[in-house]
Amino acid sequence: MNHSPLEKPQQYSDEEWALRVQLAHCYHLVDFFGWTETIFNHISARLPGPAHHYLVNPFGLNYTEVTPANLLKVDLHGKKLEDSPYDGNPAGFALHSAVHGARPDIQCLIHTHTTPISAIVTKKAGFTHNDFYGAQLYGRIGYHTFEGITLFDDEKARMIDSLGDKHILVLRNHGIAVGESGIAKAFFLLWTVQRAAEIQCQAGALGGEDNPLPEAVSQKCAELTAMLIRDSGFAVKFFDAMVRKMRTERGQCW
């Protein structure tokens, strides 16, 4: 008998299953917006409880093939905690385990390197804050020097030092990782970073000088956005609306 991908298996609590469904939606949304890197990159969500276990995508699947049930449950060493025919992407464990182990306020971490983002993080100046979206990132970005593919445990402490108390980690010459206290919030932050990168690239291709924003204005924008995300259902409304849009245009996600 075929079961619906949204039918909850008995071994999962309602809370874990809801998290799995939302994380699978997040994978599908990243594909829907064209931000995937084929089968590479990763999105993780920490499971409730003191053990620092988290969910991540099975390596080798397209983002559209991720379902709530086939997400991997792993520990901070990347060890699978449940039987699965799939393994995780080793390049993701150092980054995700480092953040989930050190930052309890970050429940979801998304790593991408779209073309605009990769272009911005290759530039020495990184992100500027002179447009509507860039201003919202003011004071929220940590920068980490490129050390190669993130495979090795010894880089974890340096990545955490680079991130500090921020929620956006620029991996120089590589990509970004954004983390927030929930999946919807992390997705909205990723969308904001992506829009900032797109606009900065387009503005840089035009002739003429940019119109710089005063730092106080950029800081005000960043603080207001952070407050909206923290204290309202703003991000959840956005996430749910994007899921509806995706379903309308693509049909049922799974």
TrEMBL record:
<dbReference type="GO" id="GO:0005856">
    <property type="term" value="C:cytoskeleton"/>
</dbReference>
<dbReference type="Pfam" id="PF00596">
    <property type="entry name" value="Aldolase_II"/>
</dbReference>
<dbReference type="GO" id="GO:0051015">
    <property type="term" value="F:actin filament binding"/>
</dbReference>
<dbReference type="GO" id="GO:0005996">
    <property type="term" value="P:monosaccharide metabolic process"/>
</dbReference>
<protein>
    <submittedName>
        <fullName>Ribulose-5-phosphate 4-epimerase/Fuculose-1-phosphate aldolase</fullName>
    </submittedName>
</protein>
<feature type="domain" description="Class II aldolase/adducin N-terminal">
    <location>
        <begin position="21"/>
        <end position="201"/>
    </location>
</feature>
<dbReference type="InterPro" id="IPR036409">
    <property type="entry name" value="Aldolase_II/adducin_N_sf"/>
</dbReference>
<dbReference type="InterPro" id="IPR051017">
    <property type="entry name" value="Aldolase-II_Adducin_sf"/>
</dbReference>
<comment type="similarity">
    <text>Belongs to the aldolase class II family.</text>
</comment>
<dbReference type="InterPro" id="IPR001303">
    <property type="entry name" value="Aldolase_II/adducin_N"/>
</dbReference>
